[in-house]
Design brief:
Shape: globular
Radius of gyration: 19 Å
Distance between the termini: 12 Å
Largest sheet: none
Oligomer: single chain
Number of domains: 1
């Protein structure tokens, strides 16, 4: 076995372990937490849900669909190991940047803590742009940007929603043909609720005086790490789907 084949075997093994995790059924605790979150969301007036959905929709669209001039060119004809080494370097950079930003905003009190939300969202989406390019995909393609939205949702959702989104991502080449041609038709309500519910506790704790800086740094570090891991495995699925089956 060549070094390249060995590296690909390792990446494939990591992918298979991740796929099993994505397909796990929600645990009793997952189901309980989901019921609680649904009830809490039901307590919010509809106008609040609409305002939050609109805010997140505009923030995400502003970065994801309005930044063609800042995107990297797709990296082509490069071994998987080289691609992933570069990606890990970028994940480390964004992870450390997010941790520093979380520490500063967490130490700055309530109002500055609120400012962390759009800053962190921007870092996450820019990381996805870089990862897509390193795997050789052109995010100027509309459907590739929708793919990034699905990767994002897969990283920051309850296990119940994660099961559903995973099936869509795993069968992307077929699923992409069913996507709406207008990004306004994307299910932004579910997107914002799942994302908000996923990070609520960590981000609320970041607003607490004294501990806010430490919580902000750790929470942002972990969230970027989670996104990087999810994105790498999503693109690995597409990489290995396009290649002959590896010897197990």
């Amino acid at each position: 076995m060549t070094p390249t084949e060995h590296t690909e075997q390792e990446a494939y093994a990591e992918l298979r372990a991740w796929q099993r995790k994505m397909q796990e059924k929600p645990t009793l605790l997952n189901r309980f937490a989901r019921r609680v979150q649904i009830r809490l969301n039901a307590l919010l007036p509809e106008r609040v849900h609409e305002a939050i959905t609109a805010a997140i929709k505009h923030m995400v669209r502003g970065v994801l669909f309005g930044s063609t001039h800042t995107t990297r060119n797709p990296v082509l004809d490069v071994p998987l190991a080289e691609r992933e080494a570069a990606i890990r370097t970028r994940v480390k950079y964004y992870r450390n940047t997010a941790a520093a930003e979380g520490a500063v905003t967490g130490a700055g009190g309530f109002l500055l803590g609120l400012a962390d939300f759009p800053l962190l969202l921007g870092l996450k989406l820019k990381l996805l742009f870089d990862i897509a390019a390193f795997y050789g995909y052109d995010v100027k393609d509309y459907t590739e940007r929708l793919y990034l939205l699905h990767v994002f949702q897969l990283a920051f959702s309850s296990q119940h929603t994660r099961n559903e989104v995973y099936r869509q991502v795993a069968d992307w080449e077929a699923y992409r043909h069913t996507l709406p041609t207008d990004v306004h038709e994307f299910d932004w309500r579910t997107f914002q609720q799942e994302y908000r519910d996923y990070i609520d506790l960590a981000k609320l704790a970041q607003l607490v005086p004294v501990i806010g800086a430490a919580v902000g740094a750790v929470a942002n570090y972990k969230l970027l790490e989670q996104l990087g891991d999810t994105a790498m495995n999503c693109y690995r699925m597409r990489y290995f789907a396009a290649r002959p089956a590896l010897e197990k």
